[in-house]
């Protein structure tokens, strides 16, 4: 048995390829899944990349570039993730799906989502649900109140006033995930 084969048995996530962006996924969600695919918490992964939670929360240019580098994302994939996340455009506005809108329509302490969608994601990989659970960008948008797939009301998944902590998606989803990773 080669040393590599042995380490794959000890650390099964090493044998799987990094995740690719999912439809409608936000950048913060993708980073959370990338960290999970490497078997580390989102905050430890930020440390590895040399970026802070705060710089990721405000989508600092260097932080975004670091994610692209670590995940091997091309410009089109990154643009799609950013467009689903909303990018600051001045102090009180954001660009979301090509539209300029008030930041408050996209950013507030209540992070909402559809538990049915998250449960369905988790079923794809029951041993490592955090690699699969996707936060959809439309859930950020205040005017969206219904899951477009399940036609059920979006629920508040967590409330966090500190912006940096609000986007530590992995930590919060780990409380929701089956098996509590
Ligand atoms: Zn749903």
Automatic annotation (TrEMBL):
Residues 19-154 form the TniQ domain. Pfam families: TniQ (PF06527). InterPro entries: TniQ (IPR009492). It comes from the Bacteria. This is TniQ domain-containing protein.
């Amino acid at each position: 048995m080669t040393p590599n084969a042995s380490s794959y048995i000890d650390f099964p996530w090493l044998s799987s390829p990094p995740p690719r962006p999912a439809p409608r996924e936000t950048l913060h969600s993708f980073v959370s899944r990338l960290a999970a695919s490497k078997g580390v918490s989102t905050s430890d992964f930020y440390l590895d990349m040399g970026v802070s939670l705060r710089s990721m929360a405000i989508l600092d240019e260097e932080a975004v570039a670091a994610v692209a580098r670590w995940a091997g994302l091309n410009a089109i994939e990154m643009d799609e993730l950013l467009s689903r996340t909303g990018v600051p455009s001045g102090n009180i506005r954001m660009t979301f799906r090509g539209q300029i809108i008030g930041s408050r329509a996209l950013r507030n302490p209540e992070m909402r989502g559809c538990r049915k969608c998250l449960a369905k994601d988790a079923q794809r990989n029951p041993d490592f649900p955090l690699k699969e659970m996707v936060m959809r960008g439309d859930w950020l948008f205040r005017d969206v109140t219904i899951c477009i797939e399940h036609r059920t009301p979006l629920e508040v998944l967590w409330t966090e006033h500190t912006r940096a902590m609000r986007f530590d998606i992995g930590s919060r989803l780990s409380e929701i995930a089956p098996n509590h990773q």
